[in-house]
Amino acid sequence: MYYLTTGLGVFAGVHLFAMFLTNHRNALLKYLGEGPYKGIFSLLSIVGLFLIVWGYWTMSNGPEANELAYIPMAGMRHVTMILVLLGFISIGASHGKGHLKLWLRNPMSIGIGLWAAGHLLSNGRIYDVLMFGMFLILAILDVIVCTMRGKRPMHTPRVRSDIIAVTVGVVLYAIFLFGFHPYVLNLPVIG
After folding, report:
1. 13-68: pLDDT as tens digits
2. Which long-range contacts (CB under 8 A, 24 or more apart) does 50-55 make?
3. DSSP code for 187
4. Spatial separation of the C-alpha atoms in residues 40 and 173, rounded to whole Å
5. 60-67: long-range pairs with CB below 8 Å, 24+
6. Which alpha helices (H) appear in the chain, and where do they start and end?
7. How many Cα atoms are found within 13 Å in the side-chain-facing hemisphere of 139?
8. Contact 65, 126 (CB under 8 A)
9. 62-111 tens-digit pLDDT
10. What is the DSSP letter of 91?
11. pLDDT by residue (tens digit) across 137-163?
12. Residue 10 CA, distance from chain mean position
């Protein structure tokens, strides 16, 4: 539990700092410069993610593996699969200049939110709720904060970017569904 909660704290802390303490963030950005600031932000995020993954893996293979926060409703696996696919497509849309990005306004956070919400529908173990819950909360907060600040993409949309977003999303989905889940996590989704 220690590694998971520490990783969640580091990852969420860095993102919440950037999201809500904008005066401090801007002062630090000005003091350090853009490159070093982004480097430190990225490094802390990666350390947090590493601790999250390590803690999650440790808990899923330890005595806490079957401790439930709730029992998921039957049949949620298919809903999860649809939400995760839409989430990956949204994440793919965040890097282009397509209609999807304009429509979603905040496709990265929406994609992370769909991914997390889908997993919460199918998984009720304590470590699942901690991890996916934190990502869902961060995603929702980011969408709210960006909306309140009027932050939105401004570009001339290109259909090519939407095709690439959907392709990237489907490919990522297939990699996670047929590769990462069964062979890395040892949790086959299909079967």
Report:
1. 999 988 888 888 889 888 888 888 889 999 999 999 999 999 988 888 888 778 88
2. 50/7, 51/3, 51/4, 51/6, 51/7, 51/10, 51/11, 52/3, 52/4, 52/7, 52/8, 52/11, 52/131, 53/7, 54/3, 54/7, 55/1, 55/2, 55/3, 55/4, 55/5, 55/6, 55/7, 55/127
3. -
4. 30
5. 60/125, 60/127, 60/185, 64/1, 64/125, 64/126, 64/127, 65/125, 66/125, 67/125, 67/126
6. 2-20, 22-32, 34-60, 76-93, 99-104, 107-122, 126-148, 159-175
7. 22
8. no
9. 887 788 899 999 889 899 999 999 999 999 999 889 888 888 989 999 99
10. H
11. 999 999 999 998 888 888 888 899 999
12. 15
Note the residue count of the chain: 191
Q: What is the pLDDT of residues 107-137, one digit of tens each?
A: 999 999 999 999 999 999 999 999 999 999 9
Cβ–Cβ < 8 Å for 28, 150: no
- pLDDT value for 25: 86
Residue 44 burial by Cβ neighbours in a 10 Å radius (0-12, 13-18, 19+): middle
The encoded tokens of residue 178 equal 């047929």
Share of the chain above pLDDT 90, in %: 54
